[in-house]
């Protein structure tokens, strides 16, 4: 099945996407991730101000199948969480790259972004899982 | 759905003044007014208990039982759950008045047979898994995991090794493993599986660095249905790092009389008597998740333990190192009676034969369905269960594992386990057990092949299944998001 993997984003092996907006990055989960999880029913998101190291757990996403941890692709401070969608978690399924974003983080080490996967590299990761 | 197929609650059937025949003898205790005994302010004016006839009760509960799918009704290939047939002789022995009518506070000399049964079953389980001692107290597998982690903690504490706060768990584990470790206060460190679906030794080695690992929790055979062939090396690595190794015994049905966790190097394990030893799987209990330990953990077993002195059995409560009691009295005793009956019925050769047939049945399904469904990790052989991925069906017909499971209900089978283990996308985990005939397994295989063909020719019928059940596809998302368990009358008066 064709997966929606926007070329202008960066990705992780654990299925998060990253969009750079100046010194802040927006983070969410990929279309492949939401499709594999199924209907998302609960989101646990961090408070603004929390300081994350790269690969720290920043929250949880619960679907009808499983609870999965969310890993921060970068180091930095959480400046905003998309708490507005916690009562309408289906947005993560229907609009994972725009309305379904999860957190915004102010980068403490911008070079970390370069080390993330490109859309092409992430596509290979998703393919290896059977798409 | 044209007809309302909901079964009313017993409260909905209630009509004022309706009663069953009352054949009780006249009460020989003098009547006392509840308001005098409790105070009028403590009494409710209305107590809406159902008022029904005997026939109302019989029909209501018969209807409910007819809606239940059970192993007595059909094939139940629910992976990881070992839904084998529970021989009726187990119920016969558990119902003997000498067992069923005991009081847990009876003097020990009047319950010598019961104590002997507990003592003997504990020894049998220890022998089966190659360990030193066993407790029957835990109520179920996860309770056994928790007890094991408590004993691991006590073991390290006695050695002053209190910095050991990490439990290592592979990413294929049952979700109860990290939950049990976390409940005990440990930090959980996950390790990946390798390309064969087994524990990645490099990942384990990295996780063991730093000397803070209290234990590794490992399921063998693992949840992909594969035997961890590096198990001796794995146990050695953890022991060399000062940790202990726990075996999740959920998959013990693959190993009876063939190999023993104790011989592989495990320090402690749990059994699910309801899986391996044919006691009832029951909505929450009573159950027994017996735990066996090597000599190093024996001092920490829960009290009381049963001791044998000459021909006499007695409870032993005094053990200062014990982690204490984890169950009221002595665990679910009548479950122990059933497991004891099963072990004696089959005997040493019979238990081995049970596991051998469980292995053959699973491999037969794997071999016959391998052309139709992707076998997880392309495993050339499996243990007592086989994990398929519905990736091919998802790609070809947008049919998911869940759809295939629902469609199996139309063919008269209980669905297999879905979406577990988490490391296999679109997982379908099938465990036939040893108690099914070749004819039953063949008809299940034919249904799976038919569904694979439907996926190509008419995927819609699979995506919208089930079509023949009383209730069609449930809205699981709504059930999670708008859970409502309050009683509301089904029919207006």
Question: How would you characterize the overall build of this protein?
Answer:
The complex is a heterodimer of chains A (131) and B (493). Chain A is α+β, with helices and mostly antiparallel strands and 131 residues long. Chain A has helices at residues 31-37, 90-94, 111-114, 119-128, and strands spanning 10-11, 16-21, 24-29, 40-44, 51-52, 57-63, 67-71, 76-81, 103-107. Chain A has a single domain, classed as OB fold (Dihydrolipoamide Acetyltransferase, E2P) (Beta Barrel), CATH 2.40.50.100. Chain A is 20% helix and 34% strand. The mean pLDDT of chain A is 93. In chain B, strands 1-7-6-5-4-2-3 form a seven-stranded mixed beta sheet, sandwiched between helices. Helix content of chain B is 38%, strand content 11%. In chain B, helix 4 (88-94) runs antiparallel to helix 13 (333-369) and helix 13 (333-369) packs across helix 16. Chain B folds into three domains: 10-67, no CATH class; 89-344, 3-Layer(aba) Sandwich (Aspartate Aminotransferase, domain 2); 348-479, Alpha-Beta Complex (Aspartate Aminotransferase, domain 1). The chains are: A alpha+beta (131), B alpha/beta (493). Chain A binds chain B through residues 1, 36, 38-39, 41-42, 64-66, 90, 129-131, and chain B through 374, 389, 391, 394-395, 398, 402, 418-419, 422, 425-426, 476-477, 480-481.
Helices, strands, pairings?
The complex is a heterodimer of chains A (131) and B (493).
Chain A lengths: L9 E2 L4 E6 L2 E6 L1 H7 L2 E5 L6 E2 L4 E7 L3 E5 L4 E6 L8 H5 L8 E5 L3 H4 L4 H10 L3
Antiparallel strand pairs in A: 1-2, 2-3, 3-9, 4-6, 5-8, 6-7, 8-9
Chain B lengths: L9 H4 L20 H5 L15 H14 L20 H7 L2 H4 L11 H18 L3 E3 L5 H18 L7 E5 L5 H8 L3 E5 L9 H7 L5 E7 L11 H10 L3 E5 L12 H4 L3 E3 L2 H4 L14 E3 L11 E5 L2 E5 L16 H37 L4 E2 L10 E4 L1 H7 L3 H10 L6 E2 L8 E4 L7 H20 L1 H5 L12 H6 L12
Parallel strand pairs in B: 2-3, 2-4, 4-5, 5-6
Antiparallel strand pairs in B: 1-7, 6-7, 8-9, 10-11, 11-13, 12-13
């Amino acid at each position: 099945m064709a997966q929606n993997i926007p070329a202008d984003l960066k990705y992780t092996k654990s299925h998060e996407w990253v969009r750079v907006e100046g010194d802040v990055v927006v983070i969410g989960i990929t279309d492949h991730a939401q499709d594999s999880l199924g209907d998302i029913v609960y989101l646990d998101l961090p408070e603004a101000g929390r300081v994350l190291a790269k690969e720290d757990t920043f929250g949880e996403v619960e679907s009808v199948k499983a609870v999965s941890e969310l890993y921060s692709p970068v180091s930095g401070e959480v400046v905003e969480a998309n708490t507005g969608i916690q009562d309408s978690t289906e947005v993560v399924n229907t609009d994972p790259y725009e309305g379904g974003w999860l957190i915004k983080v102010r980068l403490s080490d911008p070079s970390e972004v370069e080390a993330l996967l490109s859309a092409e590299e992430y596509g290979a990761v998703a393919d290896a899982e059977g798409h | 759905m044209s007809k309302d197929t909901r079964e009313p609650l017993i409260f909905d059937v209630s009509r004022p003044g309706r009663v069953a025949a009352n054949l009780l003898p006249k009460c020989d205790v003098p009547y006392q007014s509840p308001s005098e005994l409790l105070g009028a302010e403590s009494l409710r004016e209305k107590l809406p208990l159902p008022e029904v006839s005997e026939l109302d009760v019989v029909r209501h509960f018969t209807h409910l039982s007819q809606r239940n799918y059970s192993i007595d009704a059909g094939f139940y290939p629910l992976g990881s759950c070992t839904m084998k047939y529970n021989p009726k002789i187990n119920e016969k022995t558990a119902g003997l008045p000498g067992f069923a009518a005991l009081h847990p506070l009876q003097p020990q000399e009047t319950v010598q047979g019961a104590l002997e049964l507990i003592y003997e079953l504990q020894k049998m389980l220890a022998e089966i898994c190659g360990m030193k001692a066993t407790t029957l107290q835990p109520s179920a597998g996860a309770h056994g995991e928790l007890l094991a982690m408590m004993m691991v903690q006590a073991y390290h504490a006695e050695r002053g090794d209190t910095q050991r706060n990490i439990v290592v768990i592979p990413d294929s584990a049952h979700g109860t493993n990290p939950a049990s470790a976390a409940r005990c206060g440990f930090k959980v460190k996950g390790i990946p599986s390798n390309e064969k679906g087994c524990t990645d030794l490099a990942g384990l080695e990295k996780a063991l660095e730093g000397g803070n690992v209290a234990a590794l929790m490992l399921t063998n055979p693992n949840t992909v249905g594969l035997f961890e062939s590096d198990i001796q090396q794995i146990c050695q690595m953890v022991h060399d790092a000062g940790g202990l190794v726990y075996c999740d015994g959920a998959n013990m049905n693959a190993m009876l009389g063939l190999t023993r966790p104790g011989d592989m190097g495990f320090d402690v394990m749990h059994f699910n008597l309801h899986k391996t030893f044919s006691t009832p799987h029951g909505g929450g209990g009573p159950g027994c998740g017996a735990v066996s330990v090597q000599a190093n953990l024996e001092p920490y077993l829960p009290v009381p333990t049963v001791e044998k002195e000459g021909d006499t059995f007695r409870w032993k409560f005094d053990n200062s190192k014990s982690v204490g009691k984890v169950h009221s009295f002595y665990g679910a005793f009548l479950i122990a009676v059933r497991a004891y009956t099963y072990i004696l019925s089959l005997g040493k050769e019979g238990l081995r034969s049970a596991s051998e047939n469980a292995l053959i049945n699973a491999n037969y399904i794997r071999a016959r369905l391998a052309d139709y469904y992707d076998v997880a990790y392309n495993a050339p052989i499996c243990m007592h269960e086989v994990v398929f991925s519905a990736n091919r069906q998802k790609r070809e017909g947008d049919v998911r594992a869940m759809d295939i499971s629902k469609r199996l209900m139309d063919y008269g089978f209980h669905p297999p386990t879905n979406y577990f283990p988490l490391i296999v996308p679109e997982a379908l985990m099938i465990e036939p057990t040893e108690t099914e005939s070749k004819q039953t397994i063949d008809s299940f295989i034919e249904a799976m092949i038919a569904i694979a063909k439907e996926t190509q020719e008419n995927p819609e019928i699979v995506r919208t299944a089930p079509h023949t059940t009383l209730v069609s596809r449930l809205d699981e998302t709504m059930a999670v998001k708008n859970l409502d368990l309050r009683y509301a009358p089904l029919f207006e008066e």
